[in-house]
């Protein structure tokens, strides 16, 4: 998917290069005369720099700027958008190229987490795929140079391949297509099935082939009943490991929610994964950053269990407010709200502001990367129903 997005953005930039950079090089005055879009110039360079550093550009921004340059978006209000990427007080193809670079940089950023797994009957593979989806990690599948057949893992046969290997701790099955290096990764999830109470010997082959002395290793396994403890000790004793976290055993019936619950308990998750509030409203999905408040933390915990639907009523020409299904801890303070703020009112009501107001609130969060007018348009007139979930 990342490659598809990068290719699309490259094609956009190339199409403009072919037509010549700067062909829509309008100044702010010319824009005012020829388009409804106005360049909103910050008061000073420091404010401008802060705006650009805070804003996270997306594919939608690229499309908006592309349409603007081609004069296709006469219906869109892009006021206040920080699209003047090179600071020359105009929006042109140079800004589009710079914006594309920002989006591509975010899109192709390599993960510092790698999920490595060996799976013979697909049970471990299923858990690994859940982990990859939940963490955004890269992946590598350990495959035997001589694949294991059903007969090879027929444990009732004392002479089957798996039994012979497990009874000899010196056996090191050869790996097909070994990964070149793990040097660029800080965290390694290592997955495997349990064979006769231990990790398969091919896991030992992998461990002895790379340097884990500066890595955080997190084992996970699947089994019918055997635990993970023996294999964890074997792994710790086999090679030097920077830090080995307590692993997790999953049954074949484990679900994505089971894996998710475990991932959230890991200390690295609290350090590296920023949770976001997802607001679905009128066919649109808005993303919000949680505030640093007890109420916001409580809201996030409740939404981890399941999404919540709330009806918000129009109030005062500046907000939509509705009752949550539960009360949250109040730490109210006199606040002058800003558009896109999300507040807790009287402990059990959520308020989304599309204009400003002054009152006593507890802050829950702030909607990211959207203007006041865009938010007001999405929320619409009158009452509205929203769904809250975790991103």
> If strands are numbered along the chain, what order do they take across the biggest sheet?
9-10-16-14-15-12-11-17
Shape: elongated
- Count every helix, treating DSSP H or I runs of 4 or more residues as helices: 13
> What class, by secondary structure content?
alpha/beta
Biggest beta sheet attributes: 8 strands, antiparallel, barrel
Distance between the termini: 18 Å
Fraction of residues in helix: 25-40%
**What pattern of helices and strands is seen along the backbone?**
HHHHHEHEEHEEHEHEEHHEEHEEEEEEHE
Radius of gyration, in Å, reads 27 Å
Question: Any overview of this molecule?
Answer:
- The structure is a single chain.
- The protein has 13 helices and 17 strands.
- The strands form three sheets. Strands 9-10-16-14-15-12-11-17 form an eight-stranded antiparallel beta barrel. Strands 1, 2, 5, 6, 7 and 8 form a six-stranded parallel β-sheet that branches.
- It has 391 residues and is an alpha/beta fold.
- A hairpin with a 2-residue loop joins β9 (276-281) and β10 (284-290).
Tell me briefly what this model is:
With 391 residues, the protein is of the alpha/beta class.
Layout of helices and strands, plus pairs?
Elements: H1 2-19, H2 28-34, H3 45-54, H4 59-69, H5 93-107, E1 113-117, H6 123-135, E2 138-141, E3 143-144, H7 161-166, E4 175-176, E5 187-193, H8 201-207, E6 212-222, H9 229-238, E7 241-244, E8 248-250, H10 256-265, H11 267-272, E9 276-281, E10 284-290, H12 294-305, E11 308-315, E12 319-323, E13 333-336, E14 341-345, E15 349-353, E16 358-367, H13 372-379, E17 384-390
Parallel strand pairs: 1-2, 1-5, 5-6, 6-7, 6-8
Antiparallel strand pairs: 3-4, 9-10, 9-17, 10-16, 11-12, 11-17, 12-15, 13-16, 14-15, 14-16
